[in-house]
From TrEMBL:
A Pfam family that the UniProt record links to this protein: Pentapeptide_4
Coiled coil, from the record: none
Location of region: Disordered: 1-50
Compositional bias ranges of the Gly residues kind: 1-11
Protein name per Swiss-Prot or TrEMBL: Pentapeptide repeat-containing protein
Residue stretches of biased makeup (Low complexity): 12-22
InterPro entries membership: 5peptide_repeat, Pentapeptide-BTB/POZ_domain
């Protein structure tokens, strides 16, 4: 694994195109309408939730596979083992949620803010994330294999061993966040801006950083591993 320190203000580019300028991510602009408190029972498969607030609800082990959440807020909810496979989260805000093993595989998140989450082993493989802001909190072992991320910002959060294997990242930014032991194996990066990562640890997929932008300090830290990846011997 390769680990670098704080991202600097340098403009070094890792195979991002000579003279090109990285395209910034478009952040979500979520404006929730007045919400109705959710007064139903558990989640339902293929349920339709529009303009409701889930506050301090324990949704552990419930099945909301295929459900649609539109203009919703989830605040301080528990999602241990919650099944949201194929769910659609649209124009919604999730604040202070926590859970282990939450299943969002092949789901769609569009115009979503995820704030101060504490999650572990979250399954988002095959998911589509578009205009998503993940701010604050800590996410361990995030599975984004084969996912598609477009206009996604990770800001002020801690990501421990995130798996981007085979994922497509387009206009993805890491801002003031720690990225520990990330795996980019077989990933495709376009305008992925890693310069703002306060810590950047790469466990796999160094050869897939074409299309990423890194700082000068990060480049220097990565240089030995990049030389080894290319088969270059460095001797004095």
């Amino acid at each position: 694994m390769v680990r670098t320190g704080a991202g600097g203000g340098g403009r070094a580019r890792a195979a991002a195109g000579s003279g090109s300028r990285v395209k910034g991510a478009r952040r979500p602009e979520v404006r929730l309408p007045p919400l109705e408190p959710y007064d139903g029972g558990g989640l339902e498969p293929d349920g339709d939730y529009d303009g409701v607030e889930f506050r301090e609800r324990d949704l552990s082990g419930q099945d909301g596979g295929g459900a649609r959440f539109m203009d919703c807020a989830l605040s301080a909810c528990v999602l241990d083992g919650t099944r949201l496979h194929h769910a659609r989260l649209l124009d919604s805000v999730l604040t202070g949620i926590r859970g282990v093993g939450t299943n969002l595989a092949e789901s769609t998140l569009r115009d979503v803010e995820l704030v101060d989450a504490r999650l572990g082993g979250t399954q988002l493989h095959g998911a589509v994330l578009e205009r998503v802001l993940i701010r604050g909190g800590k996410i361990d072992y995030l599975n984004l294999r084969q996912a598609r991320l477009r206009d996604v910002v990770f800001e002020g959060c801690v990501l421990v061993e995130p798996d981007f294997g085979g994922a497509r990242l387009e206009r993805v930014e890491f801002v003031d966040c720690a990225v520990k032991s990330a795996d980019f194996t077989a990933a495709t990066l376009t305008d992925a801006d890693l310069r703002g990562a306060t810590e950047l640890g790469i466990a796999g997929g160094l050869d897939r950083l074409s299309g990423a932008v890194i700082s000068t300090a990060q480049l220097l830290d990565l240089a030995p591993a990049l030389a080894a990846e290319l088969g270059i011997r460095v001797e004095d």
